[in-house]
Amino acid sequence: MFRIFYLYLLMVLFAMNGHAQSIPKQSIIPVKIGLLISDKKSVAAKKGAELAISQVNEKGGFNGRPFELVVRSMEGPWGSGAKEAVNMIFKDEVCAIMGSTDGRNAHLVEQVTTKSHVVFLSAWAGDPTLSQAFVPWFFSCVPNNNQQASALVEEIWQKQNLNPIGLISDQEYDSQSALKSFLKKVKMAGKPDPVQFSLEDSERDLAGLLNQMDKTDLKGIVLFVKPGSALKIIQQMQSKKMNIPVFSVLSVLNENEVSDSEMKTLENQIQVTSNPWLKTKRGPFNDEFQKKYGHLPGTVAAFAYDGMNLLIEAIRKSGLDREKIQKGLSEIHYEGVTGLIQFDQKGNRSGSLILTPIKNGIPAILE
């Protein structure tokens, strides 16, 4: 009887073990972070954010839970971006949102995240009005247009003593925002009014526009135009041998709109505003990005990489409570590939800016 009982016990244990193995393990719930991009072709920010998430997941994620990137496009009728932000928060249940869009769409996202108390980190738009509402849920890891304008004015008039200066602008939202900031800083500094040219009126005849500029004997030009337009202007200037300094804001370095080969045309031709980029951080980032995607990262990817790492760092230190994430981000000091990142009381990236030429499609890395 003992042997019978023993065999019975073994059979029961074997059955229980088989049953236990057939029960699926409880799935691990990922920590979701949203990314809003302008359109489906805007893949640079997606790649930068993906790399940041894959690297932290290799190190264990958040207490064993993996981070997951939720990407949504804002293309479509006006207001589509707000709808996507709402879906991210209430359907996807993201704990924070990063945006790599223009300033106008960033305003839509800011309104949604403010009402739902979800952190919104802008990783591209330079519109300074995004922070003027003093919304505690908004942050930007990109220097805004006011900050960039101050650096441009100082470089052009105080360091290089160039006058007169010409401005070329188009009617894009971000171009007009940057232009407005620049003209305001010029007036505050008591500098002469620049000579303004509109690309909208002369887009089909750039040669005529440049001939008109030649007659004014300009000593420098500042571009407030789309990356593709900046490329055409530089090419026309080269063909006409117009050897005068050209300046611009960071938005001209959008690798979603200008290819790597086209970006080489801008090499050493435009000086852009930038934080001092850290060479020691940038090297490994370049290597890992190229290994994963087969090409070097541009400016959009670099800011997206830093932005996603900022959100991850705040979540890992503060947990998943929205208010604690906001507090953690407001107190952060993070050395990324675009330099030291910290925020002022309005969520703007603080720190000094410099003017630097373009090298390999990005602001030149300082030694």
Provide keyphrases for this structure.
5-stranded parallel sheet, 17% strand, alpha/beta, 7-stranded mixed sheet, Rossmann fold, 367 residues
Q: Can you describe what's shown?
A:
- The protein folds into two domains: 31-143 and 277-351, Rossmann fold (3-Layer(aba) Sandwich), CATH 3.40.50.2300; 146-274, Response regulator (Rossmann fold), CATH 3.40.50.
- The protein has helices at residues 2-22, 44-58, 80-90, 103-116, 145-159, 173-188, 199-202, 206-214, 227-239, 260-263, 279-293, 299-318, 322-330; strands at residues 31-37, 67-73, 96-100, 119-122, 138-140, 165-169, 195-198, 220-224, 246-248, 271-274, 334-336, 339-341, 354-359, 362-363.
- Mean pLDDT is 88; it is low at 1-25.
- The longest helix has 21 residues, at 2-22.
- It is α/β, with parallel strands linked by helices.
Please specify the SSE layout and strand pairing.
Elements: H1 2-22, E1 31-37, H2 44-58, E2 67-73, H3 80-90, E3 96-100, H4 103-116, E4 119-122, E5 138-140, H5 145-159, E6 165-169, H6 173-188, E7 195-198, H7 199-202, H8 206-214, E8 220-224, H9 227-239, E9 246-248, H10 260-263, E10 271-274, H11 279-293, H12 299-318, H13 322-330, E11 334-336, E12 339-341, E13 354-359, E14 362-363
Parallel strand pairs: 1-2, 1-3, 3-4, 4-5, 6-7, 6-8, 8-9, 9-10
Antiparallel strand pairs: 10-13, 11-12, 13-14
